[in-house]
């Protein structure tokens, strides 16, 4: 449009051609700048996509690790409950023994009696969770907050 306007103004033809050539040169330079910007943005996009892919792999590994650790924890808790039941049965068996049976001394019986209402009763309470991990606050990595999206795992 600008080139057409320049031609309509009249004047010398050489001046018009020079103006048109300058306009074309300015447009060419603008196109070169835009091409360079486009190339820079494409490279940046490629870097970001590579980083995203790497983070997705890390997320997948983290999800798998959380799942493995949850299974280990459930197995350990089941084993703990099994051992606690065994300990409770032994404790109850020892407490039923008469003092004269010779299995336990009077001192051992008094220690067991003292433990009845204290640590053994608390330790053998059903449904008790390990106190090694503080679960009173919601963790960002809590297994209940993690959504396992297996649709991307198949890709």
TrEMBL record:
UniProt entry tagged with the keyword Ribonucleoprotein: no
MF terms in GO: GTPase activator activity
Sorted UniProt keywords: Coiled coil
GO biological process: mitotic cytokinesis; mitotic spindle midzone assembly; Rho protein signal transduction
GO cellular component terms, semicolon-separated: centralspindlin complex; cleavage furrow; midbody; nucleus; spindle midzone
Domain of life of the native organism: Eukaryota
Coiled coil: 38-97
Signal peptide: none
Protein name (record): RGAP1 protein
Organism this protein belongs to: Caloenas nicobarica
Encoding gene, per UniProt annotation: Racgap1_1
């Amino acid at each position: 449009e600008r080139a057409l306007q320049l031609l309509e103004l009249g004047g010398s033809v050489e001046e018009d051609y020079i103006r048109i050539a300058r306009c074309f040169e300015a447009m060419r330079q603008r196109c070169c700048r835009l091409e360079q910007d486009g190339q820079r943005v494409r490279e940046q996009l490629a870097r970001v996509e590579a980083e995203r892919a790497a983070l997705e792999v890390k997320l997948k590994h983290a999800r798998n690790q959380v799942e493995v650790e949850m299974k280990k924890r459930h197995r350990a808790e089941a084993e703990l409950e099994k051992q606690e039941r065994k300990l409770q049965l032994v404790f109850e068996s020892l407490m039923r023994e008469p003092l004269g049976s010779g299995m336990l001394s009077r001192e051992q019986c008094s220690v067991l009696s003292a433990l009845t209402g204290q640590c053994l009763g608390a330790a053998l309470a059903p449904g008790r969770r390990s106190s090694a991990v503080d679960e009173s606050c919601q963790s960002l990595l809590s297994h209940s907050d993690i959504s396992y999206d297996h649709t991307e795992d198949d890709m």
